[in-house]
Amino acid sequence: MQASPQAVKLIDLAGLQALFDALWRRGYEIVGPVQRDGAIVYDRVESVAELPAGWTDQQAPGSYRLMRRGDEAVFGYAVGPHSWKRYLFPPKQTLFSVQRQTDGGLQFSPAAIDAPKRAFIGVRACELAAIGVQDRVFAGGEHVDAAYAARREAVLLVAVNCAVAADTCFCSSMGTGPAVSGGHDLVLTELIDAAGHRFLVEASSEVGRELLAELPRQPATADAVAAARAQSQRVAAGQTRRIDAAAVPALLMRNLEHPRWDTVAERCLSCANCTLACPTCFCSNNQEVTDLAGAAHRERQWDSCFNVEFSHLGHGSVRGSVKARYRQWLTHKLATWHDQFGQSGCVGCGRCIAWCPVGIDITEEVAALAASDPGGTP
User: Fold this and answer.
1) pTM here?
2) Is residue 208 one of the residues assigned to a domain?
3) Which domain does 331 fall in, by range?
4) How many structural domains are present in the chain?
5) Is 300 domain-assigned?
6) What is the DSSP letter of 141?
7) Residue 43 CB: number of other CB atoms within 10 A?
8) Which residues contact 289 (CB under 8 A, 6 or more apart)?
9) Which of 171, 190, 271, 291 could form a Cys-Cys staple with 348, CB 3.0–4.6 A?
10) Nearest to residue 162, comparing CAs of 70, 220, 230?
11) In this structure, are strands 92-100 and 295-302 parallel, antiparallel, or unpaired?
12) Cβ atoms within 10 A of the Cβ of 323, count?
């Protein structure tokens, strides 16, 4: 947290509940972290009591486990299998409907846009960066996805500075965390020490300032602000995985025929877990759904470049091998995404590492390519 103590306020758990109450009064549906089925997932919450107090996550390649903490921190975990894109870019969405009329004609009806007012609670720095990436994809070009834009406009973002990093995190090397730097309405830093359990709060938008003004609060001390800054620095320093975001695009494009692609393909199941867990992947397909009453609907569903049918053309799949599909995913994510959108498609959240059934590590694959690359190491 970079602000001065005068610009930052201090609240306790009752103040956090007061924030929930203020959001409800304004008509927001609150979505936040909950502990369910052995993971931290995002779902509708109504009170602070539903947050995953006292839980943290232990992550490694192909592994995710919840463990009890030694305190009652409500944001004392890294990231789980869910990302916020499920609310902005839903897994399934009806685009339009067609109804056959009595005279044999067809009536086309666009689907109503579902864009409720939502407040996302507990958004991490890497996740804010991921939302920014999808903003570029769906709303930043000449052809704007109207449904995405409407949902995005209706969202209020309450971010949280990370207090812990999972073993799979590498946001620091990607320049996307762990400290929040923008793109939010409010940002919280949770502190638990001799002074008690409290949260530093800073507003970064007009609605954020209005909300903060309604909360029971007090000015933050210089010591509390310094403790928050030191916490972010410790989290960044504790990350052991890294990717050189500036060097990796050229590295990948120099090594399209590297034997490492065959090595990773021997392990990859082409299951698409990584793309489903990824907060920035945006592949989809359209399907026609019909019924016996003469109606049809066109639905957009999440898809993946790991599915062999995804690149199917008249003569067959363009990328028929697992090697080709994995190479497509990694080079697009880290290299050619820059050509399309002017930035990387990876935010260093580590979900693709933890949720890969065989533990393929994106940072390890990049390092393996770099180890024998004559053009330099990233």
Assistant:
1) 0.93
2) yes
3) 248-282+305-371
4) 2
5) no
6) S
7) 12
8) 296, 297, 298, 299
9) 171
10) 230
11) antiparallel
12) 18
